[in-house]
Write a structure and sequence with these properties.
Helix content is 39%, strand content 19%. By secondary structure, the protein is an alpha/beta fold. β4 and β5 (94-98) form a beta hairpin.
């Protein structure tokens, strides 16, 4: 039986001053911690879904993923800076220390915050919303544990990110 481990986040956020949406997860999985980058589990559909809704090729390497996010004006980070966790189980998370989103929100032009799954949303509402006062949109988890959501259904739900960025581009052009 696996034991609780006290872990600190090992992945830096991805963003720049042109990022317009922020996607927050909970905490890196075991595979993501090994890769030292977001959504590293091969069955996690994050990169496939996001590439599909943005009409891009699926990035493979960490550098390709970073370039894809920045080119798409998407910031990625997590709600948790440190916690106790068993393996990759979001359900086991306890003793949370939330991340400080201030730097991203002060640096980037974030128009909307999205959270990847119910646990990320719950933690955002509990720890981050009281500080940021910014509503987040809860999206269905891209985790392989969320098997009830097909790829097509996930793409339909996550399409709101591409729509938000497209709407933002239109508003920028009309100013």
């Amino acid at each position: 039986m696996q034991q609780y481990q006290t872990l600190h986040h090992v992945v830096n956020p991805v963003y720049d001053k042109d990022s317009r949406v922020l996607i927050l997860g909970t905490f890196p999985s075991v595979k993501s911690r090994e890769m030292r980058f977001f959504y590293g589990h091969p069955q996690n559909r994050f990169w496939k879904v996001l590439a599909h809704v943005m009409k891009e090729s699926v990035p493979v390497s960490v550098e390709e993923k970073k370039a894809f996010l920045l080119r798409s004006h998407i910031a990625v980070w997590d709600v948790i800076e440190s916690c106790q966790i068993i393996g990759s189980s979001d359900a086991s998370i306890r003793d949370v220390v939330p991340t400080d989103l201030t730097e991203i929100l002060n640096t980037a032009r974030i128009r909307q915050i999205y959270v990847n799954g119910g646990k990320a949303y719950e933690l955002y509402q509990k720890y981050s919303f009281p500080v940021t006062k910014r509503e987040a949109v809860k999206l269905p988890s891209t985790s392989p544990a969320n098997a009830s959501w097909s790829f097509d259904r996930l793409c339909g739900a996550w399409g709101c990110i591409a729509e938000k960025l497209q709407d933002d581009n239109m508003q920028q052009r009309t100013r």
